[in-house]
Amino acid sequence: MPAKSPEDIIQALYDAAQNGLRVSVVSGGGGGDASEATLLALLALMMPGVPEHRVGTVGTTPQQITFSGPTKFIIVQNIAKEEYLEVSFDGGSTYMVVISGGQIALPCRITGLYVRSSVGSSGYEILATV
């Protein structure tokens, strides 16, 4: 039997838990629904995500970008030649600056973000896994 990759093992465990795998916590608990819910949540975080790609241009008015579910990892790139792109991960309360040609890459769980240009308009490219 060929060796399975960690991703294959995680996917198999996730599928089994979705199909009623019973879990018993060895140290500290009696298993049951809470343990199964915890296992599902942990496995969902570990599974590779499905990529979602957004490309656009934004002016100085904030534009909301949404995803089909919580992200696992996100890359935001400023593809403008001179303008700064500003990105908000907290609903538009605070913004982080991405210089022209720069990018932000981080693991995070968000369902959307806001982008805006510092002046004029900025092009952006966003790649997220959900």
Give a short overview:
With 130 residues, the protein is an alpha+beta fold. It is built from 2 helices and 8 strands. The strands form 2 sheets. A 4-stranded antiparallel β-sheet has the order 1-8-3-6, with no helix packed on it. Strands 2-7-4-5 form a 4-stranded antiparallel β-sheet, with no helix packed on it.
Structure description:
The model has no long low-confidence stretch (mean pLDDT 85). The protein has 130 residues and is an alpha+beta fold. The chain starts with 5 loop residues before the first helix and ends with a strand. It has two domains: 6-46, no CATH class; 51-129, Jelly Rolls, CATH 2.60.120. β4 and β5 form a beta hairpin. The protein is 21% helix and 34% strand. The strands form two sheets. It has a four-stranded antiparallel β-sheet, with no helix packed on it. It contains two helices and eight strands, in the order ααββββββββ.
Structural domains: how many: 2
Quaternary: single chain
Looking at CATH, which topology of the largest domain would you report?
A: Jelly Rolls
Write out the CATH superfamily name of the largest domain.
Jelly Rolls
The name of the CATH architecture of the largest domain is Sandwich
The CATH class designation of the largest domain is Mainly Beta
| Coarse morphology | elongated
Structural class: alpha+beta
How are the strands of the largest sheet arranged? 1-8-3-6
